[in-house]
Specification:
By secondary structure, this protein is of the alpha/beta class. It folds into two domains: 160 residues, 3-Layer(aba) Sandwich (D-Maltodextrin-Binding Protein, domain 2), CATH 3.40.190; 129 residues, D-Maltodextrin-Binding Protein, domain 2, CATH 3.40.190. Helix content is 43%, strand content 18%. Strands 1, 2, 3, 4, 7, 8, 9 and 10 form an eight-stranded mixed sheet that branches. The termini are far apart.
Length: 331
């Protein structure tokens, strides 16, 4: 009996030790400053999303340590994601991500994609609009398509931040289904949506495709006009008068999700921490207000759900970009 009691005591001690270790692992949290990496220049939709998240997290103290934003534009995200990859296993680094993380890999423009990093969250989905200057002679998407049918190189489209990404898809699909040869279109590439819109306002390009969130303040200021949105039906608010591509004879529906990724080899405890933080963020009134104000579709998914979603999205996007003739072999 005494031996049995001793064994029981030892086993209980071992169990408590394991329980303590598990609790310690689950309780991981940053013990120094956190850096959020933005793969585009200031003024982009990615940048705005990152700074919005930073503001809410700091105001609500969702992250106990300081949270800084660092812009690392270039190469359609390659510079930022390569830096993120170099921080393997470090939960103090996170990055804003979008469909470009997938499309740049599919199109052969980037060696890294979600499978080389740690997917953490999908936050929201937003549709792609096409903007022209407020005084542009192009009044709608139908007129734009008619001009390009006569001469595919008649107009230039400022694309941020790489060909084949959701911004490019938002106009490329409409042109493709209208019988326009995409290889003959003019598509200069910029490091951010903000830079592309600056070029538009300066008269250096004729049109810019981009997320509706990026366009909002310029529409409100009256400096640009949206000629089409790649949504299944008209949006509300300030976008209520903008026709969809489908209304104008081009069956094109394209959206872009935004989310969060981390370095490769993050631990389960680190992932659990960020799952908890992002869930809290998406439940705040401030976040819900931004969703409503920007016509963003709430698509929150945690880390496990995000990886599954990206698996399916990668396959779908590969087929989509192949149809648009925008794929290249991935090295």
């Amino acid at each position: 009996m005494k031996a049995t009691r001793n064994i029981a005591v030892v086993l209980a001690g071992v169990a408590l030790a394991f329980a303590g270790a598990a609790a310690q692992a689950q309780a991981w949290q940053p013990d120094r400053a956190v850096e959020m990496i933005i793969n585009t220049a200031p003024g982009s939709g990615q940048d705005a999303t990152g700074r919005l998240i930073q503001g809410i997290m700091q105001e609500r103290k969702l992250v106990a340590q300081p949270l800084s934003v660092r812009n690392m534009p270039g190469g359609g995200g390659i510079i930022a994601y390569t830096h993120l990859q170099s921080q393997a296993g470090n939960g103090h680094f996170i990055s804003i991500a979008s469909k470009s993380l997938l499309t740049n890999h599919i199109s052969g423009r980037a060696p890294l994609t979600y499978s080389h990093l740690t997917p953490l969250a999908i936050l929201f989905d937003e549709y792609i609009a096409l903007a022209v200057k407020a005084d542009s002679p192009i009044k709608n998407g139908r007129e734009l398509i008619d001009r390009l049918k006569k001469d595919p190189g008649a107009l230039s489209f400022g694309v941020a931040t790489s060909l084949g990404n959701p911004n490019h898809q938002g106009m490329a699909m409409a042109l493709k289904v209208s019988g326009i040869d995409l290889r003959k279109t003019k598509t200069p590439v910029f490091q951010s949506g903000g830079q592309a819109l600056t070029a538009l306002l300066g008269g250096h390009v004729d049109a810019v495709p981009g997320s509706i969130g990026l366009m909002r303040k310029h529409v409100e200021a009256g400096t640009i006009r949206l000629v089409a949105i790649a949504s299944p039906q008209r949006l509300g608010g300030i976008f209520a008068n903008v026709p969809t591509w489908k209304e104008q004879g081009a069956d094109a529906v394209v959206s872009n999700w935004r989310g969060l990724i981390g370095p490769p080899n993050m631990t389960p405890a680190q992932i659990a921490y960020w799952d908890n933080v992002m869930k809290q963020l998406t439940q705040t009134d401030a976040w819900k207000k931004e969703l409503a104000d920007n016509n963003w579709d709430n698509e929150y998914r945690n880390a496990a759900e995000t990886r599954k979603y990206m698996d399916a999205d990668y396959a779908e996007l590969k087929a989509f970009l192949t149809e648009l003739e925008l794929t290249k072999p991935v090295k």
